[in-house]
Amino acid sequence: MVAARESKAASGTAQQVDVAVVGAGFAGLYLLHRLRKSGLTAIALEEAGDVGGTWYWNRYPGARCDIQTIDYSYTFDPELENAWTWSEKYATQPEILRYLGFVADRYDLRRDIRFNTKVTEAKWDEATERWQLTTSSGTPVSCRHYIMATGCLSAPKPPEIDGVKDFEGKVYFTGRWPHDGVDLAGKRVAVIGTGSSAIQSIPLIAEQAAHLTVFQRTPNFALPAHNGPSPSDRMDIFQSDRAAYREQARQSMTGVPYPQQTVVSWQLSDAERRERFERAWAAGDLVHILTQLWADQAVDIDGNKIVQDLIREKIRAAVNDPETAAALTPHDHPFGAKRPCLDTNYYATYNRPNVTLVNLRQEPIKAITASGITTAKRSVDVDVIVFATGFDAMTGAIRAVHPITGRGGKSLTDVWAQGPQTYLGLTVEGFPNFFMITGPGSPSVLSNMAVSIEQHVDWVVDRIAALRDAGFTTIEPTETAQAGWGRHMTDCSMVTLHRLANTWYTGANVPGKVQGLMPYTGGVGPYRSICDEVTARGMLGFKLT
Ligand code: FAD
């Protein structure tokens, strides 16, 4: 192994490496480890001050994973698995960040990560067949391969409301929460947004604040987390054969080892359906309720409506005020077509006397003023505004590096003007030796991302090493292969209900963003088989030079 630092500045001032990775979250860390093991020189460039990615930035109260932590972990090294024990079923942000720091230390990764360094531009140099990366600080980087491990949910969406600058109180973003915390005791607080981060933080903010006003545009389905120790039934299966458990996850639809359901809703009686639903509700497991009720719940609107109605019943039972309960109840999307959230006292929080829900569908925000928020019907004075308004998902962080210039001076922004086009969600035609981890076109956000990330990283690193070993210098998908992947994505999406919802999966949350379902809906296991088949058939759909 050659340390990246040793090969610095062979030509001009640029740092020369085989591979430059952008990002040091779950994906970037594993990439660095795998690249080194493959004998490639590599560096990671990270805007943040330390490792962790999502778990470095999202420090808001209540931040946790929503996939059980025994599943949301690296699996590449059994000894790592033995060396770490999660304390809870859904670990908190500090614990996940500690875990990623532990991984960085264990494999001595930090020495090849340049922190506080943002990649601002990337250009393919046809003469040298290398990427030239411009950075916000320090020397530029010249690399044979350029891998964006920049995250799907890492570019916070700016507020769309006028007057934020006029507000005289404090403003916080859940995705950029201050590291030393925020004291909200006795404060009048507004939370704007009711997505996953809001649903996690609202109960804790309500406990501290003098008064909390929640501004909701679109309600989400939230399911009880029932957090605590990892459930013994799952732990027993895991402990009895860890390798088999992990393999089942890799071959599953979502990256969590549940079997494929075969019984459809109409084969079950009302009582049987309710019994299945109550069992899933009590389990407090997102993936269980998303996949294990009946086989048609995610593909047929009638099978899905039964689940929707059962959840709506739960919301009505949890929230005392019928008008508030009605406002909190989703009606605009099938269950699962938008990522559901995990609820720890979320609905119950609206029964507190110090919490008010403002339904923006009935009274849109007009402006943010010096003292608070004005809607079509009222003015609410607050000391603090928390924006929990989500992310420019999947493409936001990629497009923020601007321009990314490929062959013939083509910019990725132009190539993606009508929406992202990729082959396998990993590569783009016209951009040789360019890879994305969990990019648009991969299963990513529809899965346990730890499993998807490991699969993407293994496939990409293995391909780069094989390319080198075979004496090639470039790899790039063909136009035909990319068009074919686009068609396959569309075909897959036609059999799910995702197409019926306007969500961050489709870009609907970002004004002006081209609409279209970005993740691959064909499932984690089938996607893995396709990637493996591409390799087995001599890099089907790729040009190598
Ligand atoms: P990230 O963790 O997002 O890391 C990307 C890194 O790239 C960031 O550190 C960023 O600073 C850096 N970066 C981006 N652009 C640049 C640039 N131009 N220059 C330099 N650095 C750059 N997924 C699940 O599967 N289960 C969960 O339970 C779950 N919970 C989540 C909870 C929250 C609050 C959020 C926001 C996401 C959650 N996710 C979850 C998704 C989560 O993003 C992924 O699971 C995973 O952490 C992504 O890892 P990553 O390395 O791909 O990206």
Summary tags:
8-stranded mixed β-sheet; 5-stranded parallel β-sheet; binds flavin-adenine dinucleotide; 545 residues; alpha/beta; disordered N terminus
Give a written overview of the molecule:
- By secondary structure, the chain is an alpha/beta fold.
- 32% of the residues lie in helices and 16% in strands.
- It contains 17 helices and 20 strands.
- It has helices at residues 26-37, 54-57, 78-83, 93-106, 196-208, 232-240, 242-251, 270-283, 286-291, 301-318, 322-328, 346-349, 396-400, 412-415, 449-469, 479-494, 524-536, and strands at residues 15-22, 42-45, 113-114, 119-125, 130-135, 141-148, 170-173, 188-192, 211-216, 222-224, 341-343, 355-359, 365-368, 372-375, 379-381, 384-387, 404-405, 434-436, 475-477, 542-544.
- The strands form 5 sheets. Strands 1, 2, 3, 4, 5, 6, 17 and 18 form an 8-stranded mixed sheet that branches.
- Strand 13 (365-368) and strand 14 (372-375) form a beta hairpin.
- The chain is globular, with a radius of gyration of 23 Å.
- The two termini are 25 Å apart.
- The model is unreliable at 1-11 (pLDDT under 50).
- Residues 22-28, 45-48, 53-54, 56, 58, 63, 65-67, 72, 118-119, 149-154, 197, 397, 400-401, 437-438, 448-449, 453 line the site of flavin-adenine dinucleotide (FAD).
Task: Please tally the helical runs, counting DSSP H or I stretches of 4 or more residues.
Answer: 17
Tell me how many strands there are. Answer: 20
Flag low-confidence runs: 1-11
**What is the residue-mean pLDDT, rounded to a whole number?**
95
Bound molecules: flavin-adenine dinucleotide
Broad structural category: alpha/beta
Which radius of gyration do the C-alpha atoms yield?
23 Å
Q: What percent of residues are in strands?
A: 15-25%
Estimate the global geometry from the Cα principal axes: globular
What gap, in angstroms, lies between the N and C termini? 25 Å
What about the largest sheet? 8 strands, mixed
* Helical content class: 25-40%
